Amino acid sequence: MRRRLLAPALLLLATALGCTEAGTAAPAPGPAALPAAEPDVRPLGRIIPLPASVEPGGAPYTLTAATRIGVPAGAPAVRAVAERLAGLLRPATGFRLPVVTDPAADLVLRLDPSAGALGDEGYALRSAPGRLTLTARTPAGLFRGVQTVRQQLPAAIERTTVQRRAWRIAGGTVTDTPRFPYRGAMLDVARHFFTVEEVKAYIDRIALYKYNVLHLHLTDDQGWRIAIRSRPELTSTGAATEVGGGPGGFYTQEQYKEIVRYAAAAHIEVVPEIDMPGHTHAALVSYPELNCDGRRPEPYTGIEVGFSTLCAEKEVTYAFAEDVLREIAALTPGRYVHIGGDEAKSTSPADYRTLMDRVQPLVTRHGKQVMAWHQLTGDATPVPGALIQYWGLDRTPAEEKEEVARAARAGAGIVVSPADRAYLDMKYDADTPLGLKWAGTVSVRRAYDWDPGTHLPGVPESAVRGVEAPLWTETLSTPEQLDTMAFPRLPGLAELGWSPAAGRDWDTYRIRLGEQAHRFDALGIGWYRSPEVPWPAR
Ligand code: TNX
Fold first, then answer.
1. Residues whose CB falls within 8 Å of the CB of residue 229, separated by 6 or more in sequence, listed in order
2. Is the CB of 495 under 6 A from ligand 1?
3. CATH 3.30.379.10 residue window(s) in the chain
4. Ranges in the chain annotated CATH 3.20.20.80
5. CA distance 269 to 111
């Protein structure tokens, strides 16, 4: 309560030092509000995800009507990132911001192949009067750096009409690399279908927070969402339903490629998931011969799980899996094809092993690595190179966690998505109207305040490839509903994947998160005003 009396400048200082809580006798009842307006110059590094290293110093850089964006000659991938930056900055500034190859340009994007320490996605940003330089070893690194430039500018930069204000970036240097190579967001387009445009909007959101994977859950009991040319019934029959009885929908292969291209322009890899052997009711409706009894079941539009299975003893099952995985692999420039493997409650353990033993090689034969939910480690054996997605809870039995640890020791990479931390479809609290709560409620703090590197006992940090934030859509059917569940938890999970553990803590994070509200608003993101966060005063 006391903090509400603090003058804004003092509050900013206190919060910058991370000491707004310290020294108060009782625990703070709830965070006070931030000042209604943003500071003119955002302190360097006060962004999400928190950069690995920040050395503030010197006067700020100012973006002006005369600013030109310089790129090296003959580097189309760099030019593409520069054009993207210009495209972001032009609407709100109203500046021309030409992309030029003149070395005297004031805002410079450059590749330095010798900057090995920056890795595949790192960047260095130097800001000083008259010159802003973004350096990376790769175009992906430049793209991540562009997100930093964006967030260092006032949030009004995200608006689509000209804003009259100064555009400054605090002086100093940010040197930044991700902690983990895999930072994913998953969208379930099977329970409710989302259009290409809606998926693109989600890609835009995750790109701002330096995510680099979009996992699309393309098939489930309620609908099949991707055209498979050799199996036309999957979409002519299997796509026509969704939870609640709506019309469903699917992506043609051209539309799917458009999503993949759009993601690639944001240096985001798309991981398609074809869930097997459970979660296959839509396929079983489309091709009755895939059922052990050969009969076509009724379509399903409820939200139960665990009732469907492919038939292990029929050869047509493997011909089906081959057709689907061959076409999916051909649509996938990325490394992974996710084959699900979760909640196969209607598949006997022996059948599960048979199915997974035969399906995994289909993926590798088509040049892709297997990704699967962690049940693959208990009831079957991951093939070499498999990436395992852990989605257990604190209360998941130790033996199940040990199976994942054993797979990690045998060389599998692990992506952590604990349902009671990282599931964006869990309710924030008991009053949240949307979402589920089978894994408990997941507050903004709970989603942030844990460490992916040490979360799973017996899994060394070296086996952890990263974090993923799944958004299941049993209860979500509009982009606005996706926004309310993802924001504000999605930025925090991005920080878990990107930022060094040592620099992170909830008390300073929640202030940086509060400041993001200006940006959510400018971007038209409908976010949930969690009482745990000191949002700007309204
Ligand atoms: C569990 S997580 C599932 C999904 C549900 C989700 C809802 C996982 C691998 N399976 O089928 O949609 O919970 O939160």
1. 253, 327
2. no
3. 39-176
4. 182-523
5. 21
Q: Which residues contact 433 (CB under 8 A, 6 or more apart)?
A: none
Beta-strand runs (E) in 233-385? 269-276, 336-340, 369-373
Ligand 1: residue whose CA is nearest its atom 2: 391
Closest residue by CA, ligand 1 atom 13: 472
User: What element of type H or E holds 272?
Assistant: strand 269-276
Pocket test for ligand 1, best of 274, 308, 343 (most atoms within 8 A of CB): 343
Q: Does ligand 1 come within 6 angstroms of the Cβ of 390?
A: no
How long a stretch of residues is the chain?
538
Class of domain 182-523: alpha beta
Q: Write out the chain's pLDDT in tens, 538 residues.
A: 222 323 333 333 333 333 333 333 344 446 678 988 888 999 999 999 999 999 999 999 999 999 999 999 999 999 999 999 999 999 999 999 999 999 999 999 999 999 999 999 999 999 999 999 999 999 999 999 999 999 999 999 999 999 999 999 999 999 999 999 999 999 999 999 999 999 999 999 999 999 999 999 999 999 999 999 999 999 999 999 999 999 999 999 999 999 999 999 999 999 999 999 999 999 999 999 999 999 999 999 999 999 999 999 999 999 999 999 999 999 999 999 999 999 999 999 999 999 999 999 999 999 999 999 999 999 899 999 999 999 999 999 999 999 999 999 999 999 999 999 999 999 999 999 999 999 999 999 999 999 999 999 999 999 999 999 999 999 999 999 999 999 999 999 999 999 999 999 999 999 999 999 999 999 999 999 999 999 999 8
- Residues annotated as catalytic (active site), given as ranges: 343
CA of 496 to the centre of ligand 1 (A): 21
Is any atom of ligand 1 closer than 6 Å to the C-beta of 343?
Answer: yes
pTM beyond 0.85: yes
Q: Could you give the CA distance from residue 103 to residue 374 in angstroms, rounded to a whole number?
A: 51
Classify domain 39-176 by CATH architecture.
2-Layer Sandwich (3.30)
Closest atom of ligand 1 relative to the 470 alpha carbon: 2
Q: Read off the amino acid at residue 361.
A: P
Distance (angstroms) between ligand 1 centre and the Cα of 279 equals 10
